[in-house]
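Amino acids appear as letters; backbone shape is given numerically. Here is one record.
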Amino acid sequence: MQSMKKRILIAGISHETNTYCQGETETSDFYQMRGDTIFRAAGTESSLGGALATCTELDFEIVPVLIVSAQPSGTINFETYVAFKQEILAGIDSAKPIDGVFLELHGAGVVNGIEDLEGDLAQAVRDKVGEAVPITASFDLHGNVTQRMADALDGVFACHQYPHVDMHLRAEEAIRLISRMLAENFRPVIHVETVPMLMPTTTTFEGIGQRMLEFILEIEQTPGVIDVSWFHGFPYTDISHVGSHVVVTTESNHELAEDVARRAATHLWQQRESFRPLSLSAEAAVNQAMLSDSGTVVINETSDNCGGGSPGDGTHLLKAMLDAELDNACFGFIVDSSVAEQAHAAGVGATISVELGAKTDNLHGDPLCLTVYVKALHDGRLIMQAMGKASPLNIGKMARLICNGMDIVVASRRSQTFDPGPFEAVGIDVRKYSIVALKSSNHFRAGFSDVATQIVTADPPGLTTHHIEVFDRLNCDWPMWPVDENANYD
């Protein structure tokens, strides 16, 4: 007897593209899950984990095709994208008939020759399944989104929080909308409102980001509104539709979608000066941290955040900390596979001379020539503790090095520091240190919020600096705040 369960196809391509990075992102850079391997995400607080859990709860038959994702990096190779896209479309053909599609996307994907990865993919999927099949998608809030993409979808669900602790919840909403559409036989409408703002990375855990999100969640309660997604945007990219965006999904009422989106966009624009960041040099950040006389101060090096495309091997902050001859401080982690390999070859207890960091470019500092003691080693296979809880994280071979009394954690693979896991893996209890330094813009807050008595942001030169005026804008044809004083949202 043939199953009467509704069949929901799951697929996606997720990448945050920093077009200012060197080189293209190739096929081998992507973590790829096909078919039943997609079920490995079950039980994690990730977008995919949330989608799988909700499909199971609603007794849907899950049709897993392809999910690929990569660390934020340079423009995606054209052939790489086309091959992934064709595999998804072929999977749809093989799976028919299907009753709904869930796409795991990012919102800031850029392919060589295609500015809007998400719009291109969503339209291709729509063309393949037809107008009657519901398609919803979950997103990172650091997306530059287009109306073309929205028109191909039936629901747009960006995570609300930064750090992204609610990605699984937003995917759940996306799946529930498919269920509702199948039960009630209606078609939502979506409106995208773009604001000419190049927003700095802004947490929603406090301050203006928290207040803006409260406004978004309040207007989301408007009768007839299914969802309001505030895309902060991703400023580290040179494309025509860069900016900040409000995307509203309603129950078939386009006028309502436009009205709510414009209300939110107007409020965002009126608050823009509150988003202007304070940027401290590495030296200034260290000096400020040294003024604290209690607890643990966390210094986050926002400008070398692998989560935005930077290399993670910058030495600006680490050098400032060593120069300050800090007592009871640790740094974790800097990405340098050659030094990690050297430490593993030498073994615990060895004293070695290393040339640490700054192997990618000159922007992120100069290599540090140091004599270090190898205190501990680890294989770098971790489990995320806060954001994306229970998800695996592999940062490659790790080493805990001691230099002039300071602990330095080195890893081999690019990633920002999400939680204390990389420290704990090599025997460091961050609560016992006066100063803990790491590379991340805001995701670290989910894992360190109960550790830090104070957070100081260091912003030396780097590919994810708050000084976005240093990046060329060749493809955006209108003035953007805060770079251009003539920027205007009307």
Observations:
- The chain has a mean pLDDT of 97.
- The first helix runs from residue 47 to 57.
- Residues 282-465 form one domain.
- The chain has twelve helices and 19 strands.
